[in-house]
């Protein structure tokens, strides 16, 4: 894969979920996968060992799959999602607003 849009297109071949509830299904899946990423950090913290980076990378891939599918179901290329995010963060950086909270900073 050379770019996010190619990856997003690839995810279509692995997308198996009910079309009538696609967004709801995908949002629940995203939340579940983010929880799995948290779990990969939580247990090592509790038990005193280093997190397994390879397993975290695999879970982050699952998070990315859900993000790609949500954007695709909305008809938005991932390149647009990444462009808008870079634009937002660059603006915050230029205005010294990286810190803080709120969408409109």
Description:
The protein is mostly helical and 105 residues long. It has one domain: MazG-like (Helix Hairpins), CATH 1.10.287. It is 70% helix and 0% strand. The protein is built from 4 helices and no strands. It has helices at 4-12, 22-47, 53-73, 78-94. α1 (4-12) crosses α3 and α2 (22-47) runs antiparallel to α3. The longest helix has 26 residues, at 22-47. It is globular, with a radius of gyration of 16 Å.
Furnish the topology, listing elements before pairings.
Layout: H1 4-12, H2 22-47, H3 53-73, H4 78-94
Helix pairs in contact: 1-3, 2-3
CATH fold topology: Helix Hairpins
Number of structural units classed as domains: 1
Instruction: Report the helical percentage.
Output: 55-70%
Q: Bin the strand percentage.
A: under 5%
How would you classify the helix and strand content by structural class?
A: mainly alpha
Explain briefly what this protein structure is.
The protein is mainly alpha-helical.
